[in-house]
Structures are given as C-alpha cells and as structure tokens.
Amino acid sequence: MTDYDPAAPNARRFPRVIVPDEIDKMPVLTFNTGITTNIFLSRERDDARFFRHGYCYGEPDHLPYQWEQRDFDETHYVLDGHIHLVVEDAAGRTIVLEAGVGEHIYLPAGYTYRLECSGVSYKFFWTSGPSPKVGVADAPDYSRELTALRTSEGS
Fold first, then answer.
1. In sequence order, which ranges of the chain are alpha helices (DSSP H)?
2. Computed from CA positions of residues 10, 135, 108, 113, in that sequence, does the dihedral angle turn out positive or negative?
3. Is the overall model pTM greater than 0.70, yes or no?
4. Within a 10 A sphere around the Cβ of 116, how many other Cβ atoms?
5. Between the chain's N and C termini, which has fewer beta carbons within 10 Å?
C-alpha cells in the first residue's frame, strides 16, 4: 500500500472502529471556561460529508456557551451528569431544556442555543450535520489541527 496518501481527497473515507484511546487523544476545543469538546469524526480528518461526532465536557460551574445554529442540526446524548440548555427562537421566545443520563436533546437549525452550568459535571455525545465544507468555521485553528491529523502517524 505504498501509494496511499492520507492527505488525498477521500483517503480516510473508509469503514473503521474509532476506539476510546483515539478519541481521548483528539485535540480539545474550548468553548468557554470549563466547557470543552473533542471532535473525533469530521470532514477535516475523516472526509465525513454528512455529519460530525464529538464529546462535550462541562464542569459544574462552567461559563455559558452560546451559539447561533444556522446551517446544521445537532443532537446531544447525555453520557454522564445533567445538561441545562436555553433555547431562543427568532421572535425572542425562550424555553429551557434539561436532560440527564440516557436522554437525548434534538437541536434543529434556526435557533440560538446557550449551554449553562447545571451544578454537576457532564459529558455528552453530540452529532451534527450536514458537515459544512469549510469545516469548523468558527474555530479555524482547530479545523487546521484536525486536518493535520490526516497525515500524522497513527491516524
């Protein structure tokens, strides 16, 4: 397999198992103090066209993280702890969504979301799609870091 070029288009688009050790070694993106994520399936590293996967970690007293979700849908599946999410629509109406272990939250495009601390540490699995062609647009340095993993040893 000497002709294999991991940086070539679609070179990493093949079925495989992603193990916990691989996920733990992924770069960490900090959303705000006490709230981070690591994206372990992405367009940049894996040629994933239709979605991204990651884990999000929150400390009991993390600072809020707010984002406008314009062009993708997302889900959060709670693995540990409890999450508290404030949702605002275009008219300024808000609701609060809370989920605990084993519960799923669906977050469609077209809303503003704010993760607030819940008083407990949490970890949730998230997925979003479609995966924008530009990658992680609001964190270009992180996006470049994921792209660089294509050619690093063991990727």
1. 20-24, 43-46, 140-148
2. positive
3. yes
4. 17
5. N
Residue 15: DSSP 8-state = -
How far apart are the C-alpha atoms of 16 and 19, rounded to whole Å? 10
**Of residues 145, 154, 135, 31, the one with CA closest to residue 83:** 31
- Spatial contact of 125 and 77, defined as CB atoms under 8 Å apart: yes
* Residues 137, 67, 30, 83, CA torsion sign: negative
How confident is the model at residue 13, as a pLDDT?
86
Q: Please report, in angstroms and rounded to a whole number, the separation of the first and last CA atoms in the chain.
A: 15
- Alpha-carbon distance of 149 to 126, in angstroms, equals 21
Query: Structure tokens of 116?
Result: 């607030």
Which domains does the chain possess? 20-148 (2.60.120.10)
100: closest CA among 116, 119, 77?
Answer: 77
Q: Which helix (H) or strand (E) holds 99?
A: strand 94-100
- In 3D, which of 96, 41, 89 has the Cα closest to residue 69? 89
